[in-house]
Amino acid sequence: MVSQTSRHHLQKFLALLAQQPAILVQVDAAQGSVPRETGAWMAVFHDSLAGTIGGGHLEFEAITQARDILKSRPSLPVTRRFALGPALGQCCGGVATLRFEAVSQQDAHRLGQQLQPAASPVALFGGGHVGHAIAAVLSSLPFALTWIDSRDDVFPEGVTAEHSDPVEGAVRHLVPQSAVLIMSFSHAEDLEVVAACLIRQRATADLPYIGLIGSKTKWATFRSRLQARGFTPDELAHVTSPIGVPGIAGKAPEVIAVAVAAQLLQVVSGR
C-alpha cells in the first residue's frame, strides 16, 4: 500500500488537469525551518487545489501568485524565493524557494510518474487485529506494504496480500530494505519468521528493522531459543521487541498501530 493520502492528491490533480490547466507549485529548495520538504507540491487551478506545500501564509501567498501566473500562462517555469519571516507573517525563520510551472493535460503522463509518492517497503507478517490496525494506519503514510499470513482467509477485500505456508518462506522474497513486522497468530510461526529474518540479515544485511510484537518475557524466551540455534548477541540485538515507540500506554490494536507507525517513521528518517 502506497500512502492513500498522497495518491489521492495525485489522482485529484490529474483528474482536474484533464479538464483545465493549472500551475504546479513545488518546493524547489528549503533552508532552515520551513513547512514542507524539498519536492512537496500543490496544484493550483482557477477555483480549486490539490496537494499542499504546508499551509499557512506561505501557501496562501503561493496560491495568489500561482493564480496570477495562470492568467499569463508563461512558457517557462518561474522560481521565487520566500523568506519565512515577519514580512510573510510567519516566524519559522527559514527560506523556501518555490517553482511555479504551467501544466496542462498533455503533461499528465509525465506528472503522474514524476509526482508518484516514494514509499518505503514494509513486510507485515500477521493478519490479526493488530495487523489490520497497522495496515490501516500505514495506508496513509509513505509505506509500501506487503501483508503476509499462512492463512488465506484473514485479509479484507481490496487488499493485496500474500498467502505463504510455511509463512517464513516469504522472507527470502522480501524487497531489499524492507522493515519487517512480525505478529502472526502463533508464537511458533513468529519464532520461525524471526529466525528466517536473522538468517537473511546475516547473509545480505538488507532488513533495516525486524520488529516482534509481544512482551519482554516473550522476547526473553525467543532470545534464548535463537541463541541455542547459533545466533550471536549482536545478531539478536537487531530485533526490536516489544515494538513501537516507548512511552505510549495502551494495548488496543489502534494504539499499538500508531506507536509502531511512529517507530517505522523514525527508522526511515534515520536511514
Write the layout of secondary structure elements.
Blueprint lengths: L3 H14 L4 E10 L9 E4 L4 E3 L4 H17 L5 E6 L11 E9 L4 H7 L5 E6 L3 H10 L4 E7 L11 E3 L15 E4 L4 H18 L4 E4 L3 H13 L4 H4 L2 E2 L12 H18 L1
Parallel strand pairs: 6-7, 6-9, 7-8, 9-10, 10-11
Antiparallel strand pairs: 1-2, 1-5, 2-3, 4-5
Helix pairs in contact: 4-8
Give an account of the 3D structure.
With 271 residues, the chain is an alpha/beta fold. The chain folds into 2 domains: 111 residues, no CATH class; 151 residues, NAD(P)-binding Rossmann-like Domain (Rossmann fold, 3-Layer(aba) Sandwich), CATH 3.40.50.720. It has 8 helices and 11 strands. It has a 6-stranded parallel sheet with strand order 8-7-6-9-10-11, sandwiched between helices. Helix 4 packs across helix 8. It is elongated. It starts with a helix and ends with a helix.
Summarize the structure.
The chain is of the alpha/beta class. The protein has 8 helices and 11 strands.
Q: Unreliable stretches, pLDDT < 50, 5 or more residues?
A: none
Categorize the overall geometry.
Answer: elongated
CATH architecture of the largest domain: 3-Layer(aba) Sandwich
Separate helix tally? 8
Q: CATH-wise, what's the superfamily of the largest domain?
A: NAD(P)-binding Rossmann-like Domain
- Give the strand order of the largest sheet, numbering strands 1, 2, ... along the chain: 8-7-6-9-10-11
Radius of gyration: 23 Å
- Which strand-content bin applies to the residues? 15-25%
- Biggest β-sheet, characterized? 6 strands, parallel
Reading off the top of the CATH hierarchy, the class of the largest domain is best stated as Alpha Beta
Query: What structural category characterises the helix and strand content?
Result: alpha/beta
What is the averaged pLDDT score?
89
- Work out the number of β strands: 11
Order of helices and strands: HEEEHEEHEHEEEHEHHEH
Number of domains: 2
Terminus-to-terminus distance: 20 Å
CATH topology of the largest domain: Rossmann fold
Q: What helical percentage do the residues reach? A: 25-40%
